[in-house]
Amino acid sequence: MNGGRTNDVLLNSCPSGWSGLGANCYKAFIITPSPTTPPLTFDQAQAECESYNGRLAQPKDQAINDHIVGLRNAGNDQWAAWIGITDEVEGDHRFLDGEQVLVYDNWAQNEPDEAPGEADCVRIEANLVSSPQFANQWRDYPCNLPSIAYICELQGCPAAPPDHPPCVEGICFDPPPFNNGDNCIYRCSRNCTGALSATIVTCNNGAWDGEVPVCESEDRDWEDEG
């Protein structure tokens, strides 16, 4: 797996339907507009991401940007998608975590241009043949105008709890942890104590709250139990 900007975690486990890169998980949402599923403003899209305990995606380097563009394009490349950048202070574009957009950007030519109107949020533009100068690049856009697509990110789970490799001397975590957006669920492997129970460890900004699961080697023949 390719490393991302956060490289302390080499492996991650993402919820079904999400795609991992580095320590994070990403998913592009393409709305089929209807009376019950209308296009979303920036704040509404962010709220949807928060419902998964995530946020709008923050493409802080080329690898992340390429990854989320690919996810959007695989879903439907004809719709622009919200990402997690705003300039609440005019001209000072920042990711949702507060970091300034300085190290990397993917602005289209002559962007950001504060058009149309009060354009304080950012979308990855559609991949349209009619406007190749904007295709798959960033453009600022009014936050209160709805968009059909948006891209979320959430933090993945390490392959094992901190300071514990995936498998050493029969002390294993198998299968990989599952991240439901808020908790990481670890299971001891079949040759360890506690194989039939799960331990939940809450993920909080890269730190694990509560006790991490401990699997101890046990000299048992699980196959005899069917």
What do you see in this structure?
There is one protein chain. The protein folds into 2 domains: 19-155, Mannose-Binding Protein A, Chain A, CATH 3.10.100.10; 167-225, no CATH class. Residues 1-12, 165-175, 189-209 and 215-226 have low confidence and may be disordered. β4 and β5 form a beta hairpin. The protein is built from 2 helices and 14 strands. The strands form 3 sheets. Strands 1, 2, 3, 4, 5, 6, 7 and 8 form an 8-stranded mixed sheet that branches. A 4-stranded antiparallel sheet has the order 11-12-13-14, with no helix packed on it. With 226 residues, the protein is of the alpha+beta class.
List keywords for this structure.
226 residues, 8-stranded mixed β-sheet, C-type_lectin-like, disordered N terminus, 2 helices, single chain, alpha+beta, 25% strand, 4-stranded antiparallel β-sheet, 2 domains, 14 strands, disordered C terminus, Mannose-Binding Protein A, Chain A, 11% helix
